[in-house]
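Protein record

Derive tokens from sequence
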Amino acid sequence: MSDPKVVWHDHSVSRDEREQLNGHRGCVVWFTGLSGSGKSTVANVVEQKLFQAGVRTYLLDGDNVRHGLNATPQMLAERHGAEFAERFGLGFGQEDREENIRRIGAVAKLFCEAGLLTLTAFVSPYRRDRQAVREMLASGDFVEVFVDTPLEICESRDPKGLYKKARAGEIKNFTGIDDPYESPEAAELTLPGGELSAEELADRVVTYLRKQGKLGDK
């Protein structure tokens, strides 16, 4: 550690003890895909199924996190002022997206080590950023789930009207239109988002987690 004022403090309660109490393993299930691919919908259905089975979970959603931890400069300016907002707020350019995912990765790691099965739903368009989160975690803790929905289907859904605005030039750096999405090359699980229902896709995720031993006796 390069800063002598920052020293790691070991906990009295271990991760193994937390997982024994929970009756299942902690891990991070990282849903990635284009806006409108269905990743948030599927992640929510997965969490419902796991919760009903007695699994301790938490879902970190891209839009929700942008309302707090990773707020935009515009959202921070009213309370904290322009200078603060410019320094700490995150927009949607490549560097801001990188920091957005780094922060989420750090939070997801904490939840994972607390023994929670942590679900995240973020576009997270760059392979390098997703790989950086994988490398933060212990081996086997990162489960990448690619919701592989074709752009034309995502754009036809357009639940927030963002594709329409991006096509009109009202939104810049929009993934899939004027910013790239880098598909996973070796995701643990790939879901055909344009072919099956959210319920069916969620069942595939739960089945995978059970086969990998993540759910214990749940």
Observations:
- Strands lie at 27-32, 57-61, 117-121, 142-147, 189-191.
